TrEMBL record:
This is glycerophosphodiester phosphodiesterase. Its EC number is 3.1.4.46. InterPro entries: GP_PDE_dom, PLC-like_Pdiesterase_TIM-brl. Residues 1-20 form the signal peptide. Keywords: Glycerol metabolism, Hydrolase, Signal. It catalyses: a sn-glycero-3-phosphodiester + H2O = an alcohol + sn-glycerol 3-phosphate + H(+). Pfam families: GDPD (PF03009). The lineage of its organism: Eukaryota, Fungi, Dikarya, Ascomycota, Pezizomycotina. It is an enzyme of class 3 (hydrolase). It comes from Exophiala sideris. Residues 91-368 form the GP-PDE domain. It comes from the Eukaryota.
Length: 414
C-alpha cells in the first residue's frame, strides 16, 4: 500500500450516536454521490431497530473450511443474532469489493454489514477543504471527473489518448478543484482503460488502482501550507463539529502527525493510530520491529500494520501460521494492534500466482478461501488484534459476533 505525503485518515464509531441519528435514506440517485466530511453515517439502534444483513459470503467461507473446532463454532452462529461491532472497521466504507470507495453508498453498506467504525481517508481541495478520497490524485479513476469538461480542464495532467507507443494518461487531483466542485462528482469503482482513445473509454474499469506516487509530482498545495497545518486542521474539523474525541481514531502513516496530536490535542492523540508500512521489505522489516518500543515510549497507544507483518510460517513445509516477531514485540511493549485489510485480496488458491501482498508472509500456508477465517482467528486469538479493517465488512462482522468481539474501547486510552 502506498501512502500520500499529506494523507490523513480517521475512523469514526457509529455505536455512540445510534440512538440520536436518523435512519439512512436512499438518495434516489442512480449514481453514487461522492462522500465528503467526517461525521458518521447515522443508523438507528443496532440492537432494537437495525437489521444487520451479512449476505452469503460469510457462509460460503465457512462452508469451504476443513472440519475443525473453529468451523464448528462458526457454523453454530449461522442464525445470529448479528449486531454492529466496533471490531469491524469499514475500510474506505466497508463494501469496496462491490461499491465505489469513499462514497455515501459504500458507507451505508458498511454500516448495514455491521461495521461499527467507518474509515474516511482525507485529501485536500484547492480551497483547503477536506474531503473523503484515498489519494490526492486518483479522481480520474475513482470519480466521473473526466465527464465534466469544465473540471477535466483543471486536471494537473489533461487526458491524452493511447497511441501505438504510450498508454492513455491523465492525472486529476483533489487540489485541482474546489470543495464545491468536488461535491458535483459521482464516485465510480476504481479502475481505468489504459488503451482508451476517449475519456468515455478511459472510465471503463479494466485495470484497478491509481498510482499514489503521482501525488508528490502533481498535487499543488496552498502557499505556506504545511503538514503541521494539515494535521491541525484535520483535528479542528472534528472539534468544530462537536464530535466527541472518544468516537474518533485519527490515523496517519507519518509519525510526526501522531506526535503533534498527542502534544496539542491529547484527547484525540491518545487513541490516534500509527499506520505502519515501514517494513515492506526484508531489509526494513527488522528495523520496523526494532522501532516499536520507541514508538510506544513516545506515547503512541495503537499500531496498525498490514496483517502480513503480524504472521509468519512455521513447521514442516511452512504449513503452520504463527505470530511474527512484529506481533510479539508490539504486544510485549504494550501497543494495541489494529490491522488491515481483510477481503482486499483475490481468491486464496491464487496467492502465489498473483503475488498477493496481504498474504505474502504466509504464501506456503494458504491454499483456499476456506482458510480466511483461520487466518482471522490466528490474528484474534494468538496475535490479539483489537480490530480489523475490511473491504467487505460482513465477513469480519460474522466472526466478531460469533466470538463476542467489541473492538477498541476508548476508555482504555483515557
Amino acid at each position: 500500500m502506498l501512502s500520500t505525503s499529506f494523507g490523513l485518515m480517521a475512523m469514526v464509531s457509529l455505536l455512540e450516536v445510534v440512538h440520536a441519528a436518523p435512519a439512512p435514506q436512499n438518495s434516489g440517485s442512480s449514481a453514487p454521490q461522492a462522500y465528503t466530511g467526517h461525521t458518521s453515517i447515522g443508523v438507528p439502534n443496532p440492537v432494537e431497530d437495525y437489521y444487520i444483513s451479512l449476505g452469503p459470503r460469510p457462509y460460503y467461507l465457512v462452508n469451504n473450511m476443513t472440519d475443525s473446532a473453529l468451523k464448528t463454532k462458526l457454523e453454530s452462529c449461522a442464525n445470529g443474532p448479528f449486531q454492529i461491532t466496533d471490531f469491524t472497521i469499514g475500510h474506505r466504507g466497508g463494501s469496496t469489493l462491490q461499491i465505489p470507495e469513499e462514497s455515501v453508498e459504500n458507507a451505508m453498506a458498511g454500516a448495514r454489514f455491521g461495521a461499527g467504525i467507518l474509515e474516511c481517508d482525507t485529501s485536500l481541495t484547492a480551497d483547503k477543504g477536506l474531503v473523503c478520497r484515498h489519494s490526492l490524485c486518483d479522481l480520474a479513476t475513482t470519480t466521473d471527473i473526466l465527464l465534466h469538461p469544465n473540471l477535466a480542464a483543471k486536471c494537473a495532467v489533461p487526458f491524452t489518448p493511447a497511441n501505438g507507443t504510450h498508454p492513455a494518461n491523465v492525472v486529476c487531483c483533489t487540489t485541482d478543484i474546489t470543495t464545491a466542485e468536488y461535491l458535483t462528482l459521482c464516485s465510480k469503482m476504481d479502475g481505468y482503460n489504459a488503451s482508451a482513445k476517449t475519456v468515455q473509454d478511459y472510465q471503463i474499469e479494466l485495470k484497478s488502482g491509481a498510482d499514489d506516487t503521482v501525488t508528490a509530482q502533481y498535487a499543488k498545495y496552498p502557499a505556506g501550507y504545511t503538514q503541521e497545518d494539515y494535521a491541525r486542521q484535520f483535528v479542528n474539523t472534528f472539534i468544530n463539529k462537536g464530535i466527541d474525541p472518544a468516537r474518533v481514531w485519527m490515523q496517519s502513516f507519518n509519525p510526526p502527525d501522531i506526535y503533534l496530536w498527542l502534544e496539542e490535542f491529547p484527547e484525540f492523540g491518545r487513541q490516534a493510530v500509527y499506520l505502519d508500512e515501514s517494513g515492506d521489505h526484508p531489509d526494513t522489516y527488522a528495523a520496523a520491529v526494532a522501532l516499536l518500543p520507541s514508538i510506544k515510549a513516545k506515547g503512541v497507544n495503537i499500531i496498525a500494520p498490514p496483517f502480513n507483518y503480524l504472521l509468519m510460517e512455521a513447521g514442516p513445509d511452512n504449513q503452520t501460521i504463527v505470530p511474527s516477531s512484529y506481533a510479539t514485540t508490539a504486544k510485549a511493549v504494550g501497543l494495541d494492534i489494529i490491522t488491515w485489510t481483510f477481503e482486499r485480496s483475490g481468491p486464496l488458491d491464487q496467492v502465489k500466482a498473483t503475488d498477493q501482498y496481504y498474504y505474502s508472509s504466509i504464501f506456503d500456508a494458504v491454499h483456499t478461501d476456506g482458510q480466511m477465517y483461520e487466518v482471522l482467528d490466528i490474528l484474534v486469538q494468538q496475535v490479539g488484534i483489537k480490530a480489523m479493517f475490511t473491504d467487505w465488512a460482513a465477513t469480519v462482522t460474522y466472526y466478531a459476533n460469533c466470538f463476542g468481539l467489541h473492538g477498541p474501547n476508548s476508555a482504555d486510552y483515557q
